[in-house]
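Subject: Sanity check before I submit

Could someone independently write out the structure tokens for this chain? I want to compare against mine line by line before I put it in a report. The sequence has 311 residues.
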Amino acid sequence: MLKSIGVFERYRSYDHNLVEQAYGRTRGDRLARIQKGLDEIENKLKATRGVMNVQTSDTLMQLIADIRTEVTEVVERIEEPLLVAAAVGLSYMIPSHEALRDLDTINAILQRVVTGMPQGQPKTELQKAWRLTARTRELVTNLAKVFRRGKFKQVRLDNIARQSYDLVKERIDEASIECKLSLASIEVKGSERLLTTFIMNLIDNSVYWLGSIEPEKREIRIIVGTSEENRKALIVSDSGPGLQDDIEFLAQPFISNKPNGMGLGLYIAGEIALAHGGRLRDFSKSGLKGLLKGASIGMTFPRQIEEGEKE
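---
Independent answer below. Compare away.
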């Protein structure tokens, strides 16, 4: 019953999206109408030249009320899912701080014990525990970076991709997935925190859908390179069943083909792409070399004008 309701809701949302586009109610159209309203207010104010009659005043008040309604709708549509994601981040940060403190204490104890022990099996085992503690601390530290407030600056996209893979490597291995990295040395202007979140969301999506095929066929490729338009690109490609719907539809909030999915992963990825001046893309039919036959989702970055180059 619940599955049937989920399928109905998915198609209802799809139809709703088509109606919105047909009647000019997509986000871009909403923002365009807001700008048009602001322009009308400006023109009305210029026309009065300091003399405001009742009719003009009423017209301006109505325009302001209409714009306020549109802004509220846009903000609620964008902000609500991100507030949910932010709550998850806050819930994570508190225990991660405590975990790091405890890991430091355990690491110090193991170091003291190992240093004073004679050679033998017990010391070897404790040394392994010491190394595992150090590795765990590194993972928690890197994951904490995802939820910290970040600034846009020049970052190495290949380094971020490698770090993101390290965060989920054990999960990928446990799922019997072969993961290959194809990382060109590329620098972009962006947020390390947001780009890490972007990659991890796409990897998480791939891991889930790869669970539906035979273990020996499961593969993920994390690609940093250039698109067919010669733009810098970041792509996560997999050998799974591929996308069942258009990426524009799947990137809407609370839309998911997973039975228990929240429908936020691709939405957040899309918003991160927009924040970097790009867009979420389905590369599966792009013809780029190195892509697998399943889903290939990623983003492209705007071209940066080099010094001495004309726009």
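---
OP: Matches mine. For the report I'm noting this point. Residues 86-146 form one domain.
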